[in-house]
Write a structure and sequence with these properties.
The complex is a heterodimer of chains A (about 500) and B (about 500). Chain A has about 500 residues and is of the alpha/beta class. Chain A has 16 helices and 13 strands. Chain A is elongated. Chain B folds into 2 domains: about 160 residues, no CATH class; about 230 residues, P-loop containing nucleotide triphosphate hydrolases (Rossmann fold). Helices cover about 50% and strands about 15% of the residues of chain B. In chain B, helix 4 packs across helix 11, helix 5 crosses helix 6 and helix 5 packs across helix 10. Chain B is elongated, with a radius of gyration of 32 Å. Classes of the chains: A alpha/beta (about 500), B alpha/beta (about 500). At the A-B interface, helix 8, strand 1, strand 2, helix 9 and strand 3 of A face helix 5, strand 1, strand 2, helix 8 and helix 9 of B.
């Protein structure tokens, strides 16, 4: 039994290792805000959202489209998705009471526990079967179609009946028959559970008929160690069936676990979708392009986390960076540069996770690594070690980065003077962009930004935070070459002189 | 030549009968730790005494080299290992049998143990005759073994054991358990219920699923219920159990003494080779050194301290190797340089290599030529025993005096940081006097010291220095190199340090 709602032919692994820069991404892109919106106060939903989004750089285009289709189905049939999710949650909850028996040292305890849990699971599977029978028709995605037909195929009425029958027999009301051989030191070995030959006549007659061919011993009621030894022998006999049943429990448990986990991703998406739609913020299903291409174009791209924090629709940006791999962003302070950088990272992750993104339209090529190198405010105190720290982080990134990565710089290498910082930044960016790494660089280092204007490289575009003639900022970025002054003066005027 | 011992080509009786103590320098050179590690898990063979006896002639060393080289053939090593495992089982069983209470069980244990012995010996003979062996020692052993395996008495014990064992193994019976009673009968082809159940639940089975099969504790002894069942089984098959009684009366003492001795002594080689394996996996190498007892030109490349390497490997740290050589009139390494730079390790490496070479073992390093010493002395500063300062200096001088009195031109002396408790002036004067003595005797010596002057006291003395990382003087390379004692300076830009310049990045992206 397979769930396969996250990948066409893989299970979703909730324990998978996340990129080593997980914590950095979480901070720099303010991902917690996004996860919170998806979780709606449910820790489990939070965890699944976090893992599926942070692990998304491993996904290929097929997986992304596969999930997009499932998500579209989920948005259309949200009430059914929620019901299935609840069945899984409930089955797991109910089974919990019996878990203690699975850590027992006695096969008889394991067997009885397994029978009890299997009975619970069978009820839940039946409910699932009913849902499949009633609603399977309404689903269009390959993922859900496969899932429902698997349920209908494997969960036939006859099958439920045969399981039920076994569960009854395995209580062994009429004794246990075991075969054995002489092993090491003539001790019994190879204990194998056998089916008794005469079931119809009942055990009394059978016992009687065997007596002539065998030797019988009755344990004295006060012989406690004898009784214990005999019960161990019985346990050896049922060891394998207990194992088989317990493994079945595990398997079905795993099925429900996976069902719960994989649906949790879509439930999270539904939660987020609801909130964005409610504030009138646009969402779209993006168009992923192959990792070997350099595609990045969007209309109305905005930072979903900022929108969620401000609880309102915010200004979006248009980007047209197809066939470019270096985007240098300059311009006014507080002009929306950092927000833009975050929206780039966020949309890339969400697209690769198979989600909708916060934009009117969006397309970009896949990356297999997303890295951020943001200025660290908290290090301001120790100026001398700051460049060390920055370059150390850069070196860590270089350990991991490949040519199909996306790298976001936010005012990096400003810890030294402009000339030195520019030179370091220029060398790094030159080398990486030559290797086709896709780079978005927000900077005040004019020399650095300017040096790429002269090179006439076809792969560069410049964006600038807009400023109207009266000095007011629009929070929009437009294409434009770097200017030698930043708008710090504006900010100074605004804060110190109250001008706007 | 009749086979005597796999360890000793000659002088065997003297060495076997006097189990020696560990030599006094064992702790200083960490040889105690090394031998502990080598013999770990092989306590039953009592191998340590073999590591306490150095060989005094080159023939004996070559005798072992040949065997060791043969054993580097993994097929041979596997054959020996499988033999040892079986012999181990034989010994274990024989000691267990004494503890067993039920007689029918004792009898079967003896039968099974004889069977294992027969198999061990037969397999070893078959395996060894199919392998290309070059060493005198092993060839002579194979000759002995073949004669034994082809003897009539061995052939008959083998066949009798097998027949009886097969007959007993073919018995199959059933136990029917219901409430407080059980019935034992002959098996009557009742079908396997497990497969029936497994078939129905196969849908729910996961390939890599966790197993809930309980591993029952199988005590060697029987409880009275099992004994009762066995009694019932013997009543179902009376003739067979009579044969077993008869067999046990006839075969009681069945192990050949020479084979038992081989089983123990071959472990010297196996243990050492197994021990070297963990280093080889980390890319370190061992070699068979050239040994001379006349020429004091020595060298080693990529040598390392085994005890330290063993610790480093367990923490996954890398091991630093060192090269050294002495030629012509050179006799003495004076090792100086920053502390914690690997000076003591170097001295130990030198001592360990010479000692291991004198056991006929391969030594750590890619290639080596070493000297077969008559005696080895170490003088390491003792932390314990600190009385007065004067007392300590007196002790040290007395001890060095003793050493120099018995040392011959063929001895080796290793000294580590002596005279630290006196004034520098005293230490220089005393050290110079002693080094003159050593030069006079003309023996090989390693001297770890903080006194730079010693490094330039004549052609017999070679200066070795521990080195540092140029960019970071507080970091050590643990490399000890041949050069005059001096200091080092460094300068590197931060970007270079983090390897984030244009050229570095282009380079790193190529990986």
């Amino acid at each position: 039994m397979k769930v396969r709602l996250m990948y066409k032919d893989l299970d979703f692994d909730i324990k998978q290792s996340l990129p080593s820069n997980e914590q950095v991404l979480l901070n720099d892109l303010e991902l917690a805000t996004l996860f919170d919106a998806m979780a709606a106060n449910d820790n489990f939903l939070y965890e699944v959202a976090k893992i599926s989004i942070l692990s998304s750089i491993k996904n290929d285009i097929d997986t992304i489209c596969y999930r997009q289709d499932i998500l579209k189905d989920s948005i259309r049939n949200d009430f059914i998705i929620i019901q299935i999710y609840n069945i899984a949650v409930e089955a797991i909850e109910k089974a919990k009471k019996n878990y203690w028996s699975f850590s027992s040292r006695y096969p008889s305890t394991i067997l009885n526990g397994s029978i009890a849990v299997l009975q619970i699971f069978m009820t839940s599977l039946k409910e699932l079967k009913h849902l499949a029978d009633d609603y399977a028709e309404r689903f269009e995605s390959e993922g859900f179609k496969t899932f429902f037909s698997m349920i209908q195929r494997e969960m036939s009425a006859e099958y439920f009946a045969s399981v039920h029958n076994h569960l009854k027999n395995l209580k062994f009301r009429s004794g246990v028959l075991i075969s054995a051989e002489l092993g090491e030191g003539n001790k019994g070995t190879h204990y194998v559970l056998r089916k008794q030959k005469t079931t119809k006549q009942g055990w009394i007659r059978r016992l009687f008929s065997r007596k002539s061919a065998g030797y019988t011993y009755r344990i004295h009621p006060r012989d406690e160690s004898g009784a214990k030894a005999l019960s161990e022998l019985r346990n050896r006999g049922i060891n394998l069936v207990a194992d088989a049943l317990a493994q079945s429990v595990d398997h079905i448990h795993r099925f429900f676990d996976l069902l719960r986990t994989e649906l949790a991703f879509y439930i999270g998406c539904l939660n987020l979708y609801g909130q964005l739609v409610q504030m009138g913020a646009p969402v779209c299903f993006p168009l992923p392009a192959a990792a070997c291409r350099r595609i990045h174009s969007a209309r109305g791209l905005y930072d979903a986390c900022l929108a969620l924090t401000m609880r309102q629709r915010i200004v979006g940006n248009d980007v047209n960076a197809d066939n470019k791999n270096l985007v240098i962003i300059t311009g006014a302070n507080q002009g929306g540069k950092s927000t833009f950088l975050r929206s780039i990272g966020l949309s890339q992750l969400m697209m690769q996770a198979g989600m909708f993104v916060a934009a009117e339209s969006f397309s970009s090529n896949l990356c297999n690594g997303l890295f951020t190198h943001f200025k660290r405010e908290e290090d301001a105190a120790m100026e001398s070690g700051k460049l060390d720290e920055e370059l150390g982080r850069m070196s860590d990134i270089l350990d991991k980065i490949t040519s199909s990565s996306v790298l976001l710089f936010n005012e990096s290498f400003a810890a030294t003077n402009e000339r030195e910082g520019s030179e370091i930044a220029r060398q790094i960016v030159c080398a990486l962009s030559e290797e086709r790494v896709k780079i978005f660089f927000v900077t005040h280092l004019y020399e650095f930004a300017h040096s790429f204007e002269d090179t006439k490289m076809g792969n560069v575009i410049f964006l600038r935070a807009e400023r109207k003639d009266d000095g007011a900022r629009t929070f929009r970025l437009t294409e434009g070459k770097p200017l030698q002054t930043s708008y710090g003066e504006d900010l100074y005027n605004e804060i110190f002189l109250g001008r706007r | 030549m009749t086979f005597q011992s796999i360890l000793f080509g000659k002088n065997i009786d003297k060495l076997r009968t006097n189990p020696p103590e560990a030599p006094p320098f064992f702790a200083d050179l960490n040889l105690d730790q090394i031998v502990d590690a080598i013999t770990e898990g092989k306590q039953e063979y009592n191998l340590k005494p073999f590591f306490y006896v150095t060989l005094k002639d080159i023939d004996s060393i070559i005798y072992r080299h040949e065997i060791m080289k043969d054993l580097e053939n993994s097929i041979l090593l596997k054959a020996i290992e499988s033999f040892s495992q079986k012999m181990h089982l034989v010994r274990q069983n024989l000691s267990n049998i004494k503890e067993i209470y039920y007689i029918k069980q004792k009898q079967r244990w003896l039968l099974d143990t004889v069977y294992i012995y027969c198999e061990a010996v037969t397999c070893l003979q078959t395996d060894l005759s199919g392998i290309d062996i070059k060493s005198k020692g092993l060839l002579s052993f194979i000759q002995y073994l073949t004669k034994y395996v082809e003897s009539n008495s061995f052939i008959s014990i083998c066949s009798e054991t097998k027949n009886l064992k097969d007959a007993l193994s073919n018995i199959k019976y059933t136990i029917y358990i219901k409430n407080g009673s059980f019935t034992v009968s002959k098996y009557d082809s009742e079908i396997d219920y497990n497969t029936d159940v497994e078939k129905t639940f196969a849908n729910f089975k996961h390939k890599s699923g966790k197993s809930y099969r309980i591993n029952f504790y199988n005590s060697t002894n029987m409880n009275h219920i099992e004994a009762k069942i066995l009694d019932f089984v013997s009543q179902l098959y009376p003739e067979l159990f009579y044969d077993l009684v008869d067999y046990c009366a006839r075969y009681n003492n069945f192990i050949d003494k020479t084979i038992a001795e081989f089983d123990r002594e071959i472990q010297f080689f196996v243990a050492y080779l197994e021990y070297t394996e963990r280093f080889k996996e980390m890319g370190l190498t061992f070699c068979y050194p050239h040994i001379s007892n006349t020429c004091k030109d020595i060298y080693a490349s990529e040598a390392f301290d085994l005890s330290l390497a063993n610790k480093l490997i367990s923490t996954n740290s890398s091991v630093v190797c060192n090269d050294f050589y002495l030629k012509d009139e050179e006799r003495i390494f004076v090792v100086s340089g920053p502390n914690q730079g690997g000076k003591t390790t170097f001295a130990r490496t030198f001592g360990q290599m010479h000692y291991l070479a004198s056991l006929g073992c391969p030594v750590p390093g890619r290639a080596a030529k070493l000297f077969l010493f008559d005696r080895l002395f170490t003088h390491f500063e003792r932390e314990e025993n600190i009385k007065t300062l004067r007392g300590k200096l007196q002790d040290e001088l007395a001890r060095i005096h003793d050493i120099l009195n018995i040392a011959t031109p063929n001895s080796i002396i290793i000294m580590n940081e002596i005279f630290t408790s006196t004034t520098l002036k005293d230490a220089v004067v005393l050290s110079k006097r002693i080094i003159e003595k050593i030069i006079e005797i003309d023996l090989l010596c390693v001297w770890v010291t903080f006194i730079d002057e010693l490094a330039s006291l004549g052609n017999q003395v070679v200066s070795m220095v521990s080195t540092i990382v140029p960019e970071n003087p507080s970091k050590r390379t643990y490399k000890i190199i041949r050069k005059p004692a001096d200091g080092l300076s460094y300068a590197m830009s931060i970007a270079e340090k983090y390897r984030v310049t244009y050229l570095h990045i282009k380079d790193r992206m190529r990986l």
